[in-house]
Every structure is written in structure tokens, then in C-alpha cells.
Amino acid sequence: MTDSRPSELEMQVLTVLWDHGPSTVRQILELLPDGKRRAYTTVLTVMQGMSRKGLVTHTQSGQAHVYSPAVERTAVVRPLVQTLLQNVFSGNPLNVVQALLDSTDVSADELKEIRKLINSAAREAREERK
Prior knowledge:
This protein is mainly alpha-helical. It has helices at about 10-20, 25-30, 40-55, 75-90, 95-105, 110-130; strands at about 25, 55-60, 65-70. It has a three-stranded antiparallel β-sheet. It is elongated.
């Protein structure tokens, strides 16, 4: 992966590709999560830059290029979360979780899944201490 971090728009593009699989520029344009109106050429230019950075690859399908992520989600997200944890929350994961719960509407099902993740992490920590 490249040494430079993806921009906000590049992160949105990667998220579309991770969630929906290989996609054309037009498909990506329609699926961008922020809902902003952008020109096709804007997204195409971003995709070309991402290709140069090694963030995406593409193949030709008729007239269209089909883009795929060239990086795994965890390889991109982990350093971003670690930087956020250190720079904003003084390295305290509890503060991150509290901020997340305070700033978003978390459904009962999502809380149930979060509890499962916490329980799994606790089990792993106990196993490591043995």
C-alpha cells in the first residue's frame, strides 16, 4: 500500500468497493455514502489517482473500467483508528467507545453485536494470560 493516507473521498470510494465489490466509476458515483452530487469526471479523476497510489486496480469491461480495491480494509482502517486513538483520545479505548455511543444512534441489535465483540476480546485476553 502507499505511504500516503487516503483522502476522505478516497476512503468513501474504498468503502464502496469493499462493501459492493468491483464497480465502475458510475456505480461508485451512485453509491458514495456522503450523498454529495459530484460529476462523473471528478470521481474518474479520483479513481485514476487512487490507481497511481496503489489503492485500486482496474480492468477493462467493454468501454468501462471496473475498479477493485488493491488494499484490505484492515490495512487502511487500523492505522487511521490508531492515530485517532492516540491523537484525540490519549490512547484510551474506553473514551473512543464512549464517544461512539454518545455521538451515534446505536440499535439494540448493534449493541448486542458490540457486546459479543467485547466478550470475545475478553476471552482472548484471558487466554493470553494463561
